[in-house]
Amino acid sequence: MSKPDVLAVAKLHPFYQQALESVYTVHDRTHITDPTAFAALAPRIVGVAGTGEASVPRSLLAQVTNAKVVSVFGVGYDGVDVAAAIEHGIPVTHTPDVLTDDVADLAMGLVLSVGRTIPQADQFVRAGQWPSGPMALGRKVSGARLGIVGLGRIGKAIAQRAKGFGMSIAYTARTEKADSGFKFFPSAAELAANVDFLVVITPGGAGTKHLINAEVLKALGPRGFLINVARGSVVDEEALIAALQNGTIAGAGLDVFANEPHVPEVLWTMNKVVITPHMASATTETRQAMADLAFANMQAGISGQPLRTPVPECMSMVK
Ligand code: NDP
Known about the structure:
The chain has a seven-stranded parallel beta sheet. Strands 2-1-3-4-5 form a five-stranded parallel beta sheet. About 35% of the residues lie in helices and about 15% in strands. It has helices at about 15-20, 30-35, 35-40, 60-65, 80-85, 100-115, 120-125, 155-165, 190, 215-220, 235-245, 265-270, 285-305, 315-319; strands at about 5-10, 25-30, 45-50, 70-75, 90-95, 145-150, 170, 185, 195-200, 225-230, 250-255, 275. It is of the alpha/beta class. The structure holds NADPH dihydro-nicotinamide-adenine-dinucleotide phosphate. NADPH dihydro-nicotinamide-adenine-dinucleotide phosphate (NDP) binds near residues 150, 153, 174 and 281. Belongs to the D-isomer specific 2-hydroxyacid dehydrogenase family. This is Hydroxyacid dehydrogenase. One of its GO terms (molecular function) is glyoxylate reductase (NADPH) activity.
């Protein structure tokens, strides 16, 4: 008996790909590589597998008339047209919680990296510069003021870690969280004006596009550092580059970029910037947990069982 057909809209992590292939025939981006063949295949597709930012547009959702679920490998799902999915009766799932620790760990890693210039120090030694040193001094992290843009699952986990460093913690979000015990600022600019390190950890998409703009960077100031582990779209990258070039801010730690995997070359050579390749959840343990959850959601959706982790907008579809 042939296996049911699912569509992968992007290159999937091997853990997720292999799990899917054990049960389904996985069509790898056929909608892009061979649209004519896909037109014939589309009615047979029972599930759509995606990644955090991979595009699942309205036009595709209209074609997969028998799809039962869109299962995203990642907590963010800004590439999925969720409104269209709901209209077509296709619930969307994601992988919250299982990656929270890793993303919070990397956020703190970037705070320490930019503040204490750890990657630069490594380069300094490797380049044989130590004998003619010393290096420029870093910025103390313990006891500094941390601002978190987006106090959700990951934002709270970052706050927990920052407490261990004796940092004073403030945040902004759409709504105040009075029970958090942290100081709330109603805008990113007001928060930025009152912190040393500004960590961005909101979803991407239209609602947060360029939330961190020239005004926010100016408020952060020449001794302030920006850390972005959210989505490249949340930061106005041109404004950020200008702010770094002009000394408007002290430096940045960046895991995400506007046009991944392409990072503006001007950033490569800036000593005050630490760059990672969108790898905040990239540990073996977490990628396995994400694959297990994404696969479980795919199987549940296709077999009509309760979904493990539908996105908030789709909760009412599955009750
Ligand atoms: P949550 O939904 O738990 O938290 C999101 C937070 O962002 C909430 O506090 C929310 O506010 C806030 N927020 C949303 N819109 C705005 C806005 N316009 N202005 C200010 N705050 C806003 O999500 P998670 O913490 O689980 O994940 C957050 C994001 O992290 C993901 O969506 C993804 O984009 C990113 N991420 C990046 C990874 C990487 O590899 N770099 C890995 C994993 C996630 P409120 O509480 O008021 O609704």
